[in-house]
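Our collaborator T.R. sent over the components below with a one-line note: 'Predict the complex.' Nothing else. No constraints on interfaces, no templates requested, no preferences about which chain binds where. So this is a plain run: every listed entity goes in together, and whatever single assembly comes back becomes the starting point for the next discussion.
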Amino acid sequence: MREVKISLVGYGVVGHGVVEVVGRKRKLMRDLGLDLKIVSITDHTGTVISPDGIAPEKVIGEKTLQNVKNSDASSKDIIRSVNSDLVVEVTPTNIVHGQPGLGHMEEALSCGKHVVTSNKGPLVVAYSRLKKLADEKGVMLKFEATVGGTMPLISLIERTLVGNKILGVRGVFNGTCNYILTRMAEEKYPYSFALNEAQELGYAEADPTYDVEGVDTAGKVVILANSVFNMDVKYSDVQVRGITEITPEALILAHKRGYAIKLIGEVPALTVKPMLVPLGSPLAVGSTLNAAAIYTDLSETITVTGLGAGRIETASAILSDIVSIYRTKQIDAIF
Amino acid sequence: MRLSMDLELQDIPGQLLLALQPLKEIKGNIISVVHHRDRKTPRGTIPVRFIVEMDRSKLERVKSELQANGIVVVRAGEERFIEEVTVLLVGHVLDSDLGDTVNQIDSTGFAEVMDLSLVMPGIDEPSSAYLRIRATGKEEILKSLAILRAVGAQKKLLVIEPIEAEAI
Ligand SMILES: NC(=O)c1ccc[n+]([C@@H]2O[C@H](COP(=O)([O-])OP(=O)(O)OC[C@H]3O[C@@H](n4cnc5c(N)ncnc54)[C@H](OP(=O)(O)O)[C@@H]3O)[C@@H](O)[C@H]2O)c1
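Returned assembly:
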């Protein structure tokens, strides 16, 4: 049995999901030979530390750690000083400076700890630096949940499609935009109406700019460009147009001619823009779904679809990344 | 109907007139004549391409008259525009001179707007236009899209292109 001590940094929607999923899958993980233990959880208010593993029921009902914390050390101190093998970084995304996640990841990698994250910010801002640091320290940086949430994309390309040359990736990477466009097409709602509905259902933030202006999708385009295509690009290299100008009339007109309108991110073209997608295309997914088409030399086009966000769904991608780190280690051991 | 004809003419004076004669008789509207003097065939003939607006049912008659005049008909009838693409424009499509937008495509000679529909929800509200464009080839489709993109940027229109137009 391989014991894996995890420090969880960030205890919001995804952080709670991680605690729940690791708890729920404890037996399955043990059957795989992994004993996953969350030994510390940190949020804004402080940290809970328990070297033998934090019981999920002790923290899952707590919105913040205010009432259960037993340390006030800074998040970086915690990352450094708590005895852990792996840091799950799930603090809020900031794609301008990447903080606080960037500092957390640098600290973790420098200490020789693997990093698994759903936080796009640090990867958009400093992917190559983080990757280099991870390589130097012989640890892994895994970020499946940052692009397409639970939809397997990066691991699909890196593992399953290995041997293929990846010619391009095109996809619907923002569930909020996709929900709005789907509802506008279905109900002939004006944009503002569909946005309100998405906000009421919790699919869109109070300030939806980040999603509807294409910023979030562009961040994912940067991550794919840097990680899958080794391109070393920045956010400003992406040409971005959001969905705010789309009208129900445009959607109806498109539909009559057999097309949906989707916000499409594309690599290596580095574009984010609304595009016409044939209604029969596997990329023409509805509701909050994400989808990605991977264009390859040997396998032609492979398309995947799945939920791009959600507490449990995102945590599921994080769990897969955790397992893959130790599976990779096993394969390495054969050589 | 717009048809194209690839002919081979003898390299002697008066051949072009001879070739035009049958088209004149059926009142075909000749759009363009491209003379490839520089591409003389091994037989010593000169390739010429006609683009003609004419009744398709008269094509056989034209072909046999051309042949009777000693002109080689290499290929005839196939439409010149072989590639098509759909584009949507959103914004003040009409106010920003839709005629000019269409003309920027039509005037290329390699592409034309073959179908257009416009939806205007109300005054001062953005309208949407559906454009079907055809062109002489894939390359020309991409060039047409580039023209529309530039026009869109200049006229502040959102240009929505289809994903299949640009293969990765
Ligand atoms: N939600 C999804 O479905 C989803 C899907 C894919 C990716 N993501 C990404 O995953 C990350 C987490 O998302 P989320 O929805 O869980 O966000 P969230 O609910 O806002 O949670 C963020 C957590 O990070 C904590 N935090 C903020 N600054 C911190 C600091 N300096 N040190 C330690 N903790 C800090 C917050 O604490 P306080 O509450 O005390 O401020 C909160 O617990 C984001 O980067 C997001 O973009 C989310």
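Summary for T.R.: Residues 2-79 of chain B form a domain with the Alpha-Beta Plaits fold (CATH 3.30.70.260).
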